[in-house]
Amino acid sequence: MADWVNPLRETIPEGWETWFVAALAAGVGVLVALVVHHIVFRILKKLASSSDNDADNIVVRHLARPSKWAMVALGIVLAAREVPALEAGWEKIAGFVMPALIGWIALAIMRALVAAMELRADIDVADNLSARRRRTRLAIFSRIGTFVIVFITIGLMLLSIPGVRDIGVTLMASAGLAALAVGAAAQPALKALIGGLQMALTEPIRIDDVVIIDGEWGKIEDIRTTYVVVRIWDERRLVVPVNKFLEETFQNWTRKGSELLGTVFLHLDPLADVDRLRAEFERQVEANENWDKRVKAVQVTETTLDSMELRLLMSAKDAPTAFDLRCQIREGMLAFIRENMPEAIAVRRVASAAEAIWEAGEPGKTSNRD
């Protein structure tokens, strides 16, 4: 023992010397561990900053905190080898602390890897189908991995408590009824876990997919183990259970690609000049930057006694762009009709019976118009 410790030992009451030595050894071990951790991670941060790969910074940032406490535990373990009292105290809590540290480190490594892989899946590009697929799988598998790691960690921590371990042994001995009870209690968690795996493998939806569900139009913002967050067009959030996407019908507008066809319906007079309207529509579409130059068409899809339905068909690169294009073309065509073709506006024609007979010129009928 160092000479500077002896004066301190003389001031300690009798019977407390063992605990003083244990606390002092633990403090020295923790201090040395913190110093080593600071030096090592300072070097790692400099190396990561000098690297062109952002993934290095992500890994270092995620591992900094759990590795710090792991180094503290390592310092206490090394000190406990030299101090029997500290070793006895550490053995009582090691079964609870070590699984927690290992689980924390495992979570940090998994999240660092997921964050690094997300950098390679940029969904802000035009053709982001494969990137959205990777993002979705990463999100789902990271949730499942988190659940598994936390479940195993808590199980190992509980097994370090003698009373809990004895209960577990008793349950294993009476496996019949206990298995049914455990299965019933774990059914929601297992159902969510299986639903997440099914979502990842079948991919009915992906991150940033455009969907219509429960009459709401929105984008898939986040996919959790038990629910999906849909960002509605007006910034609301719709929280939908995962099973709803697996068991019920919904619309996915970007299942194979983001390109969409948009329609505008105009109800006009049956005698309106369709060729002139077609020429104006094509002029407006070709001049609009939201059109992706794939589809443009004008068709009469329905007629009634007083009007005809004119469908304007156009294409765009994605759903928001298609919505803007439809609105702009609708406004432009209505303005053109109002200013240049007012006769194309649909009107309801009402005629008396005498006028109808006169205009029809039915034989044997006379008119008082003369």
TrEMBL record:
| InterPro entries membership | LSM_dom_sf, MscS_beta-dom_sf, MscS_channel_2nd
Q: Which residues cross the membrane?
A: 20-41, 96-117, 138-161
Pfam (any one): MS_channel_2nd
Report if keyword Transmembrane is assigned. Answer: yes
Q: Which domain of life is it from?
A: Bacteria
| UniProt keyword list | Membrane, Transmembrane, Transmembrane helix
Tell me yes or no: is Glycoprotein among this UniProt entry's keywords.
no
Q: Describe the location of the Mechanosensitive ion channel MscS domain by residue ranges.
A: 191-255
- Name of this protein: Mechanosensitive ion channel
